[in-house]
Amino acid sequence: MTGPVPGTAGRRIMGVLLRHLYVLRSSWPRLLELAYWPTVQMIMWGFITLFFQSHSSWVAQAAGVLISAVLLWDVLFRANLGVSLTFMEEMWSRNLGQMFVSPLKPVELVGALMLMSTIRTLISVTPAALLALPLYDVWVFALGPPLIAFFANILVFGWCVGLAVSGLVLRFGLGAESLAWVAVFAVAPLSGIYYPIATLPEWLQPLSWALPTAHVFEGMRAVLFDHQFRWDLLFRAVGLNLLYLALAVVFFLRTFHVARVRGLLLQQGE
Q: Which range, of 43-57, 96-110, 218-232, averages the lowest pLDDT?
């Protein structure tokens, strides 16, 4: 009988390690993700800290503002995942090629993804919104009609992010699937979810105002603090959403066309 060769265990360990290092080296989304989450958390909570330092009575003035902000933010997160994960489930099951043997058109797939995103978002957010009343004495539906406007705009922007992510995953393969979580959190520090846009450095504020989410969260605070609905913020959010949705749909359809020409619909993988 021959015993184990000395050092083979270490070589096998190194073999597995090298395999994953090569995967990491060849996938820029994975490398980005490693440094991404600590950086985003540091930036966002740093701005929250700066705001609370100069507005210590802010929470006391409107107890429901943070919970309302969390729920609206989750609408964005779920709307994005509702599009991107639904699309990636087709890639994981290698079903895209079979789907498009049928008369299904890419633009019809986009419509189905948006509808599925809406359903998943409603299922995800509604229980949390209802539980906020017995747990925290916060009834987010007290916002009234403005809540519908906030919800719709956040939902549409989530679609935009989800379609862009789906296009990138289709182009670069499932190695880029972490973008479904990375992309939406990139806009979190700029959206003013828990603090006004004025808290950001002046050079960063124009970039923030280019996002519909910034207008939505500023509008939410105007309703909660000043009891007024800012139509100007709503119109800007709608205009930006129409622009971004058109760009996202065009990007996804263009990427889908390229993938079909190159035969990528049948070759999804890392």
A: 43-57
